[in-house]
Structures are given as structure tokens and as C-alpha cells.
């Protein structure tokens, strides 16, 4: 039986059962640490760990999930039998695995070669996962846990025995603090943590008193309390940029709704954001084979709704600057919402347009050349360009061919118009339509390198979209 070191207490029966089962199933020389926290070393928001299993060939970061039934999904999302859709837990678990490995390396150079692996453990006996994900082997159930955690062949690369490092690894982890899982934030009960970065954590939550549509997305931003006054002020200004943008605009059906941001604890601000039931980012839909079966008219409607949302923002003096598949959410019935206004340009007043580390946060494959040169020069035509690249990807299921620096340096088009024409012209294709050349001309005009050659506003684009037949 493996040795157990309880840093903190299990949060639920799923964790308790998993710890008990694994401890009984593993050899005596294995060690389990459970319910602890680590940060990334930059005073970031703490990351919660369910279990770290120190084995014969590796250390395993084990994330316990009490999910039930058959889970389907891909690299970005998991879909449950009850229709629920949540982001895949694998990317966040991988990030925590890297932080754990870094913690060991920082403690002693002797631990540099210790391999740390990710495991997602489904604790329900009848749970199973059928994923289109090359990392699906990292998802296991209790019955296979012992064989998985003792077999070096399942590791992605050869690993040497680490038994002689067990004492040092234990020393490194004994200094961790107990996990304090967030259960409540203000008037909200936390359902699930769905994403976490160095500066922001995203939860699905449920309002304790509101019974009509109680689910909400909570974006929790944190800042460095120990930064200089100037740096802290810049961090807070950047955090409040999205709420500043939303206050500048009136509500619109194609723009996500947010509530007032509120302070939480000493170093965090929380932004409640509209939850779309079964909503998925366009990036996720593009990754799902069955969701590629959207007709030309459906795709045109998606682009038209995004354009309407952008037109509303432009009329309020807002340039989005971050139009890409991750910034669009699509719900059933083709309900489309534009999200992520963190990087938007606010024309008036100009002092509200500064965004911390803006250039590093722009996506090089969807940013207009003039914005890449100078983000302050963004116009309506800049968002038209980014939307054109998204339109191309939606039709061809192919990302833009080049990043913006290559496009600028070589003065080449970022998309393959021949491929676009072929997709629209092929009988039997989901995108087959009567006037493909007209659509290609629309996309070509949207993606012109010279902003003066693009649609100057969304009105012109919407007019052309409305007259292109099926």
C-alpha cells in the first residue's frame, strides 16, 4: 500500500474514494500527496492539486473528476450525456503539471530529470471517455489506475527510475500549503473551474438567490499586491478595460452581456459574464468534425451576426482588435455572441485605450497589418480584415496560411482563394452555392492588405452578404 501525506483534506467523496483506492492498489514504495496548492513562482493565483503520486519512473499530477456516464469530446471540450459542455480539463492539468515539475527543479538540480506526467482520473466506476484527442490516453478510470501508474511504457518518453530521488521529492512537496478550493465568490456558488492563466481564473457559477437563469461565467482577475504603485495601477487599469468597453456600449443581442465588476479578497476583481447554455466557441466548433456540416447559408448567418455585433461596437467608438475564433461563442439555434473585449480600442477618451502588454496578446494569425504595426491605428476596416480571415476558416476549415509578419514582409495574401473557390463550387459540398465567385470577391475585399481597399464599415459587408444567394 502506498504511503499517504495529507497536505489538505479531500473536498468530496470522489476525491476520498480515489485516494483510498489508489493507495491500496499501488506498491509500498509509492507515495501520495493530496490536496495542496502551488503557484507559478510569480505571486500568481494558486493552482489546486488533487493528488501527486510519486512513482517508480515518474511523478504523476492526478486530477480527480467525479463525472458520470460516457464523455465525448475533443482537444477543447468535453460533452456529457446530459448535454452539458465543458472545456477539456487536460490543458489546465498540463499547465499544473509543468508548474509541479518547475517546483521540483527549483528545489534541487538533482530533480531536473524527474519526469512529471498528467493523469485525469474518472472516479465513477461507470464513467468512460471517448475523445478525439491525441492525449486521450491520459484519461483513465479507477480500474486501470494501478497499471497505468506503474507502467513506464505509458509515458510519452523513456524515463529512468527515480526511487533514489523519492526523499528529495517529498522534501520539495512537504513545503506546499493545503489546497483551499474556491466554493463561493460573493453571492455565487462555484460549479466548476474551467480555465486558469497567470492573471485570470474562469469559473462556471450559480447565483444563490436568483432562480431565473442563475448560471454565470465568473472571470476572476488578480493583480500583484507587492508591485510598485505605478505597476499596480497599470494592472488594475488593464483589468477594468473590458468593463470600460462594455459601459461604453448599449446592450446588443450579438454581444455578450456582463454585470458590474466587484472586488473579492485583497487582490482580485470578479466580472460576472453571461452564460450561454450549450454555448461553444467558434474555435471549438471548427475543431469538431460533425459541426463542420454547416451549410453555406448557416455560415453566412454566423458571419452576419458577428458583423452586426461589430457594427454596434463601432457605432459606440469601439474597435475590437481581437476578432478570432476564440472571441465568438455560438449557442444552439445559431445564436452568436461576440466576446473578449479585453484588447479593444476605445476611441474616446484616448487614455482608456492603453492595454497592458497589448502587442504580446494580439493573435498574429488574425491581426490586421496596420494594427500589428501600431495598435492605436485600428479602424473599423481592421476588424473587417480579421472577420474575413475567420470567414475563410469557417468555409474551408483551414486556418490562415501565414501570420501577419510574413504577410507584411512578403506582401502576400494570407488565404488561398483557389481553395475557397473550390470549396464553394464543388457539388455535394456543404458549402456549395450558386454564386461562389461573388463570395470569393467578398472575402477578398475583406482581407485586402490595404485598409482603404476593404469595406470601410460593416454596413457594406452586411449589404453584400444579404444579396449573395444560396
Mind sketching the topology for me?
Layout: E1 3-6, H1 13-25, E2 31-38, E3 47-54, E4 59-65, E5 70-74, E6 77-79, E7 85-87, H2 90-107, E8 116-122, E9 128-132, E10 139-141, H3 142-150, H4 166-174, E11 177-178, E12 184-185, E13 188-196, E14 200-207, E15 215-222, H5 229-239, H6 241-248, E16 262-264, E17 268-274, E18 280-281, H7 282-287, H8 296-315, E19 318-319, E20 328-331, E21 335-338, E22 345-346, H9 358-361, H10 369-373, H11 380-396, H12 404-410, H13 417-425, H14 436-446, H15 458-467
Can you describe this structure?
This protein is α+β, with helices and mostly antiparallel strands and 470 residues long. The chain has 3 domains: 3-178; 184-274, Phosphorylase Kinase, domain 1, CATH 3.30.200.20; 280-467, Transferase(Phosphotransferase) domain 1 (Transferase(Phosphotransferase), domain 1), CATH 1.10.510. The protein is 33% helix and 23% strand. The chain is built from 15 helices and 22 strands. The strands form 5 sheets. Strands 1, 2, 3, 4, 8, 10 and 11 form a 7-stranded mixed sheet that branches. The protein has a 6-stranded antiparallel sheet with strand order 12-13-14-15-17-16, with no helix packed on it. Helix 8 runs antiparallel to helix 15 (458-467) and helix 13 runs antiparallel to helix 14 (436-446). The longest helix is centred in the middle third of the chain and has 20 residues, at 296-315. The model has no long low-confidence stretch (mean pLDDT 89).
